[in-house]
């Protein structure tokens, strides 16, 4: 199995990838019986839009492992207790400059009084995004994640503050840019990949993972073959077996090509 993060890893700075090269490599992966998995903090509906011709064949560990879909079939869906949702929203109300998206199985939700620029930014990553008058009133969906956007340059400080304020209710993790995801403890990309490994009988020694950010750390540690982009976070680089070319230098596809030749 090959599992790739998207933003900062598989996708370049223009939010795209070399589609012709990938199409060639994907056919080789299929011929060799290698599963290709997208493992991202982003929404399932956004992720599958990058692979319109083959999305029904692929597996997605979406929302940092909270929602796992394989070939159109739901494999796993996490759920945060409604009481904890309400508690966390109350705590977040005291964080100045933090914008909140509440993520669920059917849609993501954003307060209609958020700045228009942030709503526009969010819509790039959440293809199903509903504006609501009050996030406290969102109760008719399976909710599994909070996605936060924090003030520029305050990521590390904000992660510490969130951890202290939230305790063991949810776990804050950096997901690149100025974004933080609040996850159920124990839910992460490696948890989602383990569900697929169990389904297919694939060991960690047969798994290659590619990432760049804090939310990739568990899956980087899990895999027998782990790669972090040269543009990746220093903490993630330390955990990887190898640092490869950046997302703007086609690092993932060049390394996959190399691995397939070795096969």
Automatic annotation (TrEMBL):
Gene3D superfamilies: 3.30.1240.10, HAD superfamily/HAD-like. CDD domains: HAD_YbiV-Like. InterPro entries: Cof (IPR000150), HAD-like_sf (IPR036412), HAD-SF_hydro_IIB (IPR006379), HAD_sf (IPR023214). GO terms for cellular component: cytosol. One of its GO terms (molecular function) is phosphatase activity. It comes from the Eukaryota. This is Sugar-phosphatase. It comes from Spodoptera exigua. The lineage of its organism: Eukaryota, Metazoa, Ecdysozoa, Arthropoda, Hexapoda.
